[in-house]
Amino acid sequence: MDVQKIRQDFYLFKNDNIVYLDNAASTLKPKAVIDALNYYYERLGVNVHRGVYKLSYEATDMYEQARAKVAELLNCQFEEVVFTRGTSSALNLVASSYGMANIEAGDEIITSELEHHSSLLPWQQVAKVKNAKLVFVPLDEDLRITVENFKKVLTDKTKVVALNYISNAMGYITPIKEIIKIAHEKKIVVVVDAAQAVPHMPVDVKELDCDFLAFSGHKMCGPTGIGVLYGKYNLLQKMEPIEFGGDMIDYVGLNESTYKDAPYKFETGTPIIASAIGLKAAIEYLQRIGFNFIIEKETELRKYLVEKMQELDGVTIFNPHTDTGIVAFNIDGVHPHDAASVFDEENVAIRAGHHCAQPLMHCLKQVATIRASLYFYNTKKDIDRLIIAIKKAKGFFDNFI
Amino acid sequence: MDVQKIRQDFYLFKNDNIVYLDNAASTLKPKAVIDALNYYYERLGVNVHRGVYKLSYEATDMYEQARAKVAELLNCQFEEVVFTRGTSSALNLVASSYGMANIEAGDEIITSELEHHSSLLPWQQVAKVKNAKLVFVPLDEDLRITVENFKKVLTDKTKVVALNYISNAMGYITPIKEIIKIAHEKKIVVVVDAAQAVPHMPVDVKELDCDFLAFSGHKMCGPTGIGVLYGKYNLLQKMEPIEFGGDMIDYVGLNESTYKDAPYKFETGTPIIASAIGLKAAIEYLQRIGFNFIIEKETELRKYLVEKMQELDGVTIFNPHTDTGIVAFNIDGVHPHDAASVFDEENVAIRAGHHCAQPLMHCLKQVATIRASLYFYNTKKDIDRLIIAIKKAKGFFDNFI
Amino acid sequence: MSYGNLETLYRQVIMDHYKNPRNKGLIGDETYYKVHLKNPTCGDDLTVQIKVVDNIITDVFHDGTGCSISMSAASVMSETIKGQKLEDAKKILKNYLQMVKGEAFDEELFMGDAIVYQGVANFPARFKCATIAWKALDKAIFIHDEEDNS
Amino acid sequence: MSYGNLETLYRQVIMDHYKNPRNKGLIGDETYYKVHLKNPTCGDDLTVQIKVVDNIITDVFHDGTGCSISMSAASVMSETIKGQKLEDAKKILKNYLQMVKGEAFDEELFMGDAIVYQGVANFPARFKCATIAWKALDKAIFIHDEEDNS
Ligand SMILES: Cc1ncc(COP(=O)(O)O)c(C=O)c1O
Ligand SMILES: Cc1ncc(COP(=O)(O)O)c(C=O)c1O
Which of A63, B115, B207, D67 fits as disulfide partner to A337, beta carbons 3.0 to 4.6 Å? Predict the structure, then answer.
């Protein structure tokens, strides 16, 4: 597949000279996705589920086809796909509903310092309210989660394991399949934050056997405001809804109501129709590109990037052994925020900050890091321009000393 | 203003012969809104708040300008605007956070049988969990909420009043300003479901003095997946977040974290960026049309509609004195769902169902009703075609008898 | 005025079953398998009862409220599958669902009056109405099979 | 290579204040008004102390960690407003905020070294860095005024 041709699908690459290396935050959106949104907004634009006219029927159909597409992507049942506002909402749904109902005082919840705040904080809240204990998998010298270290903190009190599949700050792939297997021997429920995994590699929930898994559309060429919670059907069925109102009900009495089956009982009110339809288009787009190509491309570029950065003096890479297209570094003596302004002048879009992973920043002993994150549409030229920008930043600030 | 010209802004009116009378469910979206979405998706497409590069800065700016636009529309402070997935999410946020923290056993919550499920059910849940009591304003003979009847159920135990501003099933305007005044004398908090009000008339939260107010973008020419919770700042500040994670935090420790001030503490994770930007465009579009024009047009059309329907035999109008463009009716002897298929054949998009108001259907003693709901882009011709469709439905089913 | 599509949807036979439903009303007999389904959106509310003897559906009843399509379909379903072997009833059910979805279906298979619901394929919004009775039948057979296996 | 914009952002004087900050370090004196502000996104963490005698800011200290813009701005702020009357400090503060936002501002007003932060207007993403010290000052004055009124 030809990257130059792929890049034609993205307005910014056609019309701007930008180097976009902030893909872990959000990816750009291809024309196919924008077209799908426009189709809905122009030709339908109506509500779903409740209409008995053709437009509404077509909108409903497209919305539910999006669910079917997600089910196909994850290899799960149609009814196991709950649409949410994003990964954060999805993970909060698990904690608020499953967590609050099943965690008791003294129970332990295993998580890690490598988590995104959205994977950690919902469980911090459950632990606080329920008087349970958060337990952190000790990270190894590279700051990785390992199966060995996971075993060390597993106890008979563990009730939930909440871990990322790929760290958004370090790009490590968690050995989640082995962890799930071990957890299940003790009937422990495992919640997987797959926000950085689903966009970049095939994820098969049947094969992983995870209990819950979450991801966002906007990190995989899809629209903002849409994400997915996958949950095993029998778990979802047992869970209480956390939002109540239109569409999620069966019968409504004045003081008692009954709710629909999963997934609908978790989707209150008018759904995020357009964004779900856009997510379907995004998945189809990625399927056309192919995950083989995505992995190949990202691997090639990551190797090139790490190699080129290692040639530079005065640059510290925090994860030289990253498994994915996420590379964290700092320029010695230059605050990441200062460096970022130089990158911006060079039209290199890259992130400086704590990447919603403050606990990890403490482990790294950094207030912030610079993160370059790749996607299949990036090129070696992008990396060359990043390297030039780093050199310029160094030169520029050295000038002042 | 010329309706024919306005209709040119809507793809369906230019390219289809449709009569769209399901505006209370969702309105159609004008080109200006679709253009705004496309601008974000094509030219930015990146995340907000955390980027130090120009694209991200512009996206952040547009997102926050959307908040400023809502604040201007409602006449409130910038910080009093919380973006949510929609009205349902907004009302659930109030119930889950404010309600669960402040309602105690024995307290009373006043609501009505005229509510949309999304206004009723969140409080039904609070009442259930907290052992509080839901109290229903007795509806008058027209099934309206009146100040007199509100006073009858107000007691010293009342802690919250949750009422609609305009009923989506009957089109009545609730005398909410008077109700708020009376409630405030007893320091009772009032939550207003304004999903049907904000799209159709000027709503000034300062003047109303309501404590909370909610509405959705998709019912006012805006995108799906975006809504607003307005809350008085001191109330919002005292409330606990209900979702935890990225973006809403200040400092994150392993076992304790601190959160941002309102509204950000309620907006966890990547925001609904595009839809907020689209909502701003929708508000601007409505401001260009002007609420005076909207009210005038809807009043004229509603009068014409009721008059024409009253000329028909065998049609029951349930709200001949509707205050707005919402008219509920049934064709005697024809199930609403059967009628709807005839309407659909006539390319008249109209809703048959319980309109997420099952308690009201009981009051009406109907399993379902047909609802025509108007917006400023409708015409007398639309109404003539509805009348023809009703006649055809009658004729068609009479044939079989 | 032409009502081609609508007329195929509401064929005389459908309206006849709506006005004069067969096998309507429930029976207080515990040996029947009974299933209650609702479609809250339009208010359809339907109960179906079947009796199975030696893998033959010997008796069917239905009762409920709803639109002409859902109510007539219950009547048609009861007539069509009464007296059928379970395995044949399952075949008819599958074929019926394919037909009303607009998919390819076996036109040779005995379908009784159910064949007239072909028109539903043009009204996907009415799919739920046309199938609620058949879905209740499906559930009733499922309960029977489960019991039989245990 | 030209760094026009960047050079106006990082003028020598800014880098000088970054490398050799004035009035840095806190004082353990309860009569000072003290404000602590953080910007978690980039890790900026700043405390500002002011002493007010007869409506004159007689002393200023600051301490913290952060990027060159935020740290130098704290130093510049301290030098600029030390010895100013409260009302003049407020004017400078307002003028400074307008300037870094890129809005019209009073070029005649005394601003000390603070005038060199004009370049920030081209880097809206750095607005927070350039203003954190001034916002802390604003809060400190606010606390003083509240106390004064009560
Ligand atoms: C009065 C009223 N309240 C609440 C809602 C729920 O709004 P949403 O579906 O956008 O959450 C609606 C619309 O369906 C409504 O009409
Ligand atoms: C690993 C990980 N988890 C969770 C999230 C939160 O996703 P969202 O902001 O879409 O809710 C992100 C992205 O910000 C992430 O990278």
Answer: D67
Residue B4 lies in a domain: no
- D124 and B CB contact within 8 Å: yes
Which residues, numbered 54 to 113 in chain B, qualify as contacts with chain A under a Cβ-Cβ cut-off of 8 Å? 54-56, 85-89, 91-92, 95-96, 113
The C-alpha atoms of residue A25 and residue B130 are separated, in whole angstroms, by 40
SS3 A364: helix
Residues A348 and A218 in one domain: no
Task: Report ipTM for this prediction.
Answer: 0.90
Max distance between CA atoms of chain C, in angstroms, equals: 58
User: Pseudo-torsion of CA A387, A389, A390, A392, nearest 10°?
Assistant: 130
> Cβ of A51 and C38 within 8 Å?
no
Q: What are phi and psi of A108, to 5 degrees?
A: -120, 140
Q: How far apart are CA A136 and CA A119, in angstroms?
A: 13
pLDDT category of residue D1 using cuts at 50, 70 and 90: very low
Q: What is the pTM of this model?
A: 0.93
Within a domain: B153: yes
The pair of structure tokens assigned to A222 is 């899809």
In angstroms, the Cα distances linking A92 to A84, B64, B76, B100, D61 are: 10, 24, 29, 17, 43
CA B155/CA B183 separation, integer angstroms:
10
Q: Which ligand is nearest to the CA of A88?
A: 2
Could you give the domains of chain C? 3-145 (3.90.1010.10)
Q: Are A214 and A193 in contact (CB under 8 A)?
A: yes
3-state SS class at A40 = helix
Mean pLDDT by groups of 10 residues along chain C of 150 residues: 72 89 93 90 87 95 93 96 95 95 92 91 88 95 87
pLDDT in tens, A254-269: 988 999 899 999 999 9
CATH code for position B363: 3.90.1150.10
How many distinct structural domains can be found in chain A? 2
Same domain, A283 and A313: no
Residues B342 and B380 in one domain: yes
CA A372 to ligand 2 center in whole angstroms: 16
Q: B198 and B340 share a domain?
A: no
What DSSP state is assigned to residue C55? Answer: T
Boundary-marking domain end, from B271, B287, B303 = B287
B237, B259, B287 - which closes a domain: B287
Question: CA-CA distance, B48 to B60, in Å (whole number)?
Answer: 5
Distance CA A240, CA A243 (A): 9
Which whole number is the average pLDDT over A259-280? 95
A168 CA to centre of ligand 2 in angstroms? 8
Q: Which of B175, B122, B119, B127 is nearest to B149 (CA)?
A: B175
Task: Give whole-number Cα distances, D146 to A303, B57, D90, D142, in Å.
Answer: 59, 35, 15, 6
Q: List the subunits that have 3+ CB pairs under 8 angstroms with A.
A: B, C, D
C-alpha to C-alpha distance for C74 and C44, rounded to whole angstroms: 11
Q: Look at strands B348-349 and A257-259 and give their pairing.
A: unpaired
Residue B140 lies inside a defined structural domain of this protein: yes
Which residues, including other chains, have CB under 8 Å from residue C51's CB and lie 6 or more apart? C29, C31, C32, C33, C57, C58, C59, C60
Q: Parallel, antiparallel, or unpaired for β A189-193 and A212-216?
A: parallel
Instruction: Quote the domain boundaries for residue A357.
Output: 290-398
Q: Please give the Cα distance from C46 to A99 (Å, whole number).
A: 37
Helix (H), strand (E) at residue C89: helix C86-101
CATH number at A201 reads 3.40.640.10
Whether A164 and A245 map to the same domain: the answer is: yes
Angle CA A5–A11–A16, to nearest 5? 95
Q: What is the pLDDT of residue B282?
A: 98
Same domain, residue pair A294 and A363: yes
Question: How many other CB atoms sit within 10 Å of the CB of residue A204?
Answer: 13
